[in-house]
Amino acid sequence: MERSVKIPGPDHPITVEPNPSRVVVRAGGRVVADTTKALTLREASYPPVQYIPLADVEPSALESTDSRTYCPYKGDASYFSLVTADGTIADAVWTYDKPYDAVGTIAGHVAFYPQHVELADS
């Protein structure tokens, strides 16, 4: 299957910058990630997304799934379910294992769907 690869530009800008704040992610009242090394990805008109280093995520909070999606700007995404005291939330976390060069710095990071977590930066 032929996939298009798109380069960010004026019609679809993407930036990735270090977040100078501490970012704490909670799910079900439990801290599942705590970092001072988050990256903020801004893409076109979408809300900014915090990418958290996998090393700063509680390993027991993540379960790998078979879900996959494709973004022509970022590459192939894989997913994790989020394990909370209230149960498991399927595909609540995603990562780009080998992102395209334009967003290469997000490799080794994960992002959380905001409707499933409380995300605070300070």
From TrEMBL:
Q: Which residues cross the membrane?
A: none
Q: What is this protein called?
A: DUF427 domain-containing protein
InterPro entries attached to this UniProt entry = DUF427, DUF427_sf
Q: Which residues form the DUF427 domain?
A: 23-114
Task: Offer one Pfam family short name for this entry.
Answer: NTP_transf_9
**Whose protein is this, by species?**
Actinacidiphila bryophytorum
